[in-house]
Amino acid sequence: MHRIPLLLVPMILSAQIYTRGVGVYPGDPTQSFAPSMAADATTYRNLALHRPAWHSSAYDYNLTAQLVTDGIKDTVLPRWLATSTSNGGVLKRHERELALDHNVVSTVNVSGSPAWIQFEFAGGDGPLEVDRVDVLASVRPNPEQDVGWTCIVSGRTGPPYRGP
User: Fold this and answer.
1) Model confidence at 132: pLDDT above 60
2) Could you give the dihedral angle defined by the CA atoms of residues 101, 102, 107 and 110, in that order, rounded to the nearest 10 degrees?
3) What is the pLDDT of residues 16-75, one digit of tens each?
4) CA dihedral sign of residues 136, 163, 81, 115
5) pLDDT of residue 54
6) Cα(149)–Cα(112) distance, rounded to whole angstroms?
7) What pLDDT score was predicted for residue 34?
8) Cα 24 from Cα 19, distance rounded (Å)
9) Per-residue b/e over 50-63, b at no fewer than 16 CB within 10 Å?
10) Distance from the first to the final alpha carbon of the chain
């Protein structure tokens, strides 16, 4: 008695008609009158304007989803800083601005012979105009090496500046 309904259930389920999926027209494509998407390259519409937006991660805080929702659009790259040292190589994102944050307790330790630190200001629509560089440094001398140090500031144009 209970076997008959159990045998009918698989037959009923296999008799279902399935569609080919959303957007897949099963017949002749010339008979399909469904709307289609077309890219409009002449106008710019910010679909995220004044709407909530989320993003998973960003290299820095200049490239966030909130900038799109505020209507900020730009054609040039944002400025970024890359910092390298003689003993650490390219510094991590949270360490790259420690030497430039105007805080006397934030330090970047460099060691080696020669010890150096390099800043690369990249991005933007043109080079930065720098009119002065203030350096605050302390030296822990090695008794096995000669005493003294030299500060060299150089750029892509012009001769390097050598200070005491």
Assistant:
1) yes
2) 80
3) 566 666 666 666 667 777 777 788 778 777 777 888 877 776 666 666 777 777 777 777
4) negative
5) 77
6) 13
7) 74
8) 9
9) eeeeeeeeeeeeee
10) 103
Q: In this structure, what token pair is assigned to residue 93?
A: 């994102």
Sequence-distant (6+) residues with CB within 8 A of 162 are 150, 151, 152
SS3 12: helix
For residue 45, CA distances in Å to 42, 48, 55 come to: 10, 9, 20
Pure H helices in 52-148: 65-69
d(CA 162, CA 38): 60
Distant-in-sequence, close-in-space partners of 129: CB < 8 Å, separation ≥ 6: none
Using 50, 70 and 90 to split pLDDT, how confident is the model at 85? very high
